[in-house]
Amino acid sequence: MRNAQPQASHFIDGQYVEDLAGSEINCVYAATGETIAVLHSATPGIIDKALSAAVRAQKQWAALRPVERGQVLRRAADIIRARNQELSELETLDTGKPIQETLVADALSGAEALEYFGGIAAGITGQTVPLGEDFVYTMREPLGVCVGIGAWNYPTQIACWKAAPALACGNAMVFKPSEMTPLGALKLAEILIEAGAPAGLFNVVQGYGDVGAGLIADKRVDKVSLTGSVPTGRKVYAAAAEGMRHVTMELGGKSPLIIFEDADIENAVSAAINANFYSTGQICSNGTRVFVQRDIRAKFVARLVERSRQAVVGDPLDPETQIGPMVTAAQREKVLAYIETGKAEGAQLVLGGGVPQGDRYAQGNYIDPTIFDGVTDEMTIAREEIFGPVLSVLEFGDEDEVIARANATEFGLAAGVFTRDIKRAHRVVARLEAGTCWINTYNLTPVEAPFGGVKMSGVGRENSRAAIEHYSQLKSVYVAMGDVEAPF
Ligand code: NDP
């Protein structure tokens, strides 16, 4: 029996806090169905405690020199790196993602965000605007208390991607993880305290959507940053608007990956695999509509199927495993239903399409990596975000056609282009409606580069200097050097 029970459900004001009156949250290991922890959803009293602590800590934190804030964040990055093995195992238990992924892509990505924003904290300054003798100076000030709300696919990374820029700018944060993956953010809270952050600066409260909604409605909150689906984004954005709060929305996608006939096929196949099967397909920016130019489609699909057939599906704690289970049984059911719809609407199933057989898969939420060929634009699987290991191949003729089809979606999170023609690559990317584009690769999201969506996929940007704009506000100060003239 695996046990990942934390000391208590919430982390507030520098310590673990429990309130058993909150409804139970069962934390289940997706590979076996075992309960690994039981937590409790935050009650109004817990929410109040977290926000009060954040309000107090924020003032103390904002009064520090920025370079001191940066030191705390960089120390937290070092602690995460030192504890990567343990944090990755916890992340695997929490999400079901293979350990070979979590060891490189979760806590370590979080550490990079803390290091990056720790490094630039001291460089967050205003400007001087000369006006003859008079002048204006600007100050980049923190917003105050930020609420972070996370999805379940990258719980630790999401917590760090939100906390790092927020704290670097002098804000405090109350973070609510997805109730499906509540454990990783608690570790970040512990680590920030160990790194020297004041108690109350980063608090974690657990709960379902109602807890997120309760946080957003509170007058003490100045900003909400959500990673989640478009329907939740709509609700959260609307609730934030009531209080004129700042928002960052990192929402879903149905991103195109366009492969022209002159592309390096082996690289394009690798990208299509990464863009659909990494994290068992549970990635917002995945290139789930793989547009392949007519003359190479058959060859591309044959190679894609041949390589994907070799994927090792299994126990996520086994270092050899490449594809783990889906996060929950409900998510697997949702994905299997999409696969059935794909078949019913006439897509040609060329790999997978079901559940792997055998004792070792019996208790987990496993699903075979699935590839459909002959997918057309109007099919459900080409229009809706599936959030599972389901790849759709769509054939196209020429450049104008594929751009129009790639853009014919409400989403605009990401896009990829494979071609050896450098002019075409830039020409196509310039016309794609997506916040993040890749040329001859896919799904690389270094902290140095802005990340976020256009259209329904989101508002604002995470990572890079751009995130600073979203966690701070400008104060403009006019300084008069002469006398004041008045009409009377
Ligand atoms: P959801 O939208 O269901 O939930 C996101 C978070 O919002 C959860 O913590 C959820 O709590 C909370 N929530 C739900 N309703 C409300 C509400 N009314 N007010 C406040 N908070 C609320 O997303 P999933 O967790 O299912 O994650 C998958 C989605 O996330 C996909 O669409 C994916 O594309 C997107 N995503 C986007 C990323 C990006 O960077 N653009 C990255 C990763 C994922 P609860 O869990 O209790 O419902």
Automatic annotation (TrEMBL):
Signal peptide residue numbers: none
Any GO MF annotation of the entry: metal ion binding
PROSITE patterns with a match to the protein in the record: ALDEHYDE_DEHYDR_CYS, ALDEHYDE_DEHYDR_GLU
Positions that bind K(+) 2: 455, 458
UniProt entry keywords in alphabetical sequence: Metal-binding, NAD, NADP, Oxidation, Oxidoreductase, Potassium
Binding site for NAD(+): 150-152, 176-179, 252, 284, 385
A Pfam family that the UniProt record links to this protein: Aldedh
Catalytic activity line of the entry: betaine aldehyde + NAD(+) + H2O = glycine betaine + NADH + 2 H(+)
Pathway participation: Amine and polyamine biosynthesis; betaine biosynthesis via choline pathway; betaine from betaine aldehyde: step 1/1
GO BP terms, alphabetized: glycine betaine biosynthetic process from choline
Residue positions, PTM Cysteine sulfenic acid (-SOH): 284
Superkingdom classification of source: Bacteria
Entry-linked InterPro entries: Ald_DH/histidinol_DH (IPR016161), Ald_DH_C (IPR016163), Ald_DH_CS_CYS (IPR016160), Ald_DH_CS_GLU (IPR029510), Ald_DH_N (IPR016162), Aldehyde_DH_dom (IPR015590), BADH (IPR011264)
Location of the active site: 162 (charge relay system), 250, 250 (proton acceptor), 284 (nucleophile), 462 (charge relay system)
Binding, K(+) 1: 28, 94
Coiled-coil spans in chain: none
Cofactor annotation remark: Binds 2 potassium ions per subunit.
EC annotation from Swiss-Prot or TrEMBL: 1.2.1.8
Limits of the Aldehyde dehydrogenase domain: 23-477
UniProt cofactor(s): K(+)
Subunit record text: Dimer of dimers.
Similarity comment: Belongs to the aldehyde dehydrogenase family.
Annotated NCBIfam families: BADH (TIGR01804), PRK13252.1 (NF009725)
Chain's role: Involved in the biosynthesis of the osmoprotectant glycine betaine. Catalyzes the irreversible oxidation of betaine aldehyde to the corresponding acid.
Stated name of the protein: Betaine aldehyde dehydrogenase
